[in-house]
Amino acid sequence: MTRTRVTSATRMGDLWEVVTEGPDGTHTHLTARVGQCGRALVEDVIRNVVRINTAEGVRLVRGSHIVTRKLYDHDRCYFFQGTDGRIIFAIPYEQDFTLIGTTDQDHQGAPGEVACTDGERDYLLDFASRYFAKSVTAEDVVWTYSGVRPLYNDGAKSATAATRDYVLSLDTNGAPLLNVFGGKITTYRRLAESALAKLAPFFPQASGRWTARVPLPGGDFPHDGVARLTDDLKARFPFLSDYWAGRLVRAYGSEAATLLGDAQAAADLGRDFGATMTETEVRWLMRREFAAARQMWSGGAPSLGCG
């Protein structure tokens, strides 16, 4: 239930009674055998929603990135060692850009109130400029973005020194509650397996490491099969340009053909939002990937956006 907030969670015997608030303000009452708290708001939910006293908490660490004009033509990534003991990366990004990141700064605000500061931008620019033949400047930056890492608060002196390992804490004082501290997308499958192992006494049928070789949606093709998949897509949909077909395959893999359906021409994909983004793709994102539609205004004309 994406974009849905838990407003209260109460133990009632061996069950949890949960009240949620949806994006339209609708409240829903649910029951569950197991509760789980995780990600950036885990500490707030445990203390203020579930109302359990705990000494465990998270340390919010901001990681900021800059996207620049393409700095080199090949498809390799770089890792750079800094004088401060940290490393950053430079990665080819969306064909026309280079992605540089990331920083490690303690974040004092709300998790949703995060942005790359000028200081972080300049730190990454100076860091990368020590290695590239030509200095990277603020004029090269086309976009910045930031995220918050909810690291387990192990009392480390600095954000960089804080543990990157996830910590699972199971509270069995009544209906079970599994608290997940830390974790990141690159280890989400291992974290999920570890979480199920913790819950095995309650769900023995769910044990086992069955996800290790299961592809994500659209990922059911060989790791070296991108070029062939792209050629097949272009052959099936001749109106696609090289750029368009390549972008769709990178974003959706084998599901790109399903997204395009029985289209015979670009006009069959509905409204054109520019940069090969069409109404068909936007609606796919809304149905399959939880993108939210909203009205955006540009020059007096309404357009559809995702966020």
Could you characterize what this model shows?
Helix 4 crosses helix 5. By secondary structure, the chain is of the alpha+beta class. 22% of the residues lie in helices and 30% in strands.
End-to-end C-alpha gap: 16 Å
Number of domains: 3
Q: What is the name of the CATH architecture of the largest domain?
A: 3-Layer(bba) Sandwich
Count every beta strand, where a strand is a DSSP E run of 2 or more residues.
16
Helix content: 10-25%
CATH superfamily of the largest domain: FAD/NAD(P)-binding domain
The average pLDDT is 87
What is the number of helical segments per DSSP (H or I, 4+ residues)?
7
Strand content: 25-35%
CATH topology of the largest domain: FAD/NAD(P)-binding domain
Oligomer: single chain
Q: What would you call the shape?
A: globular
Based on secondary structure, the structural category is: alpha+beta
Major pleated sheet: 6 strands, antiparallel
In brief:
The chain has 307 residues and is α+β, with helices and mostly antiparallel strands. It folds into 3 domains: 5-57 and 157-206, 3-Layer(bba) Sandwich (FAD/NAD(P)-binding domain), CATH 3.50.50; 59-152, D-Amino Acid Oxidase, subunit A, domain 2 (D-Amino Acid Oxidase, Chain A, domain 2, 2-Layer Sandwich), CATH 3.30.9.10; 226-306, Alpha-glycerophosphate oxidase, cap domain (Helicase, Ruva Protein, domain 3).
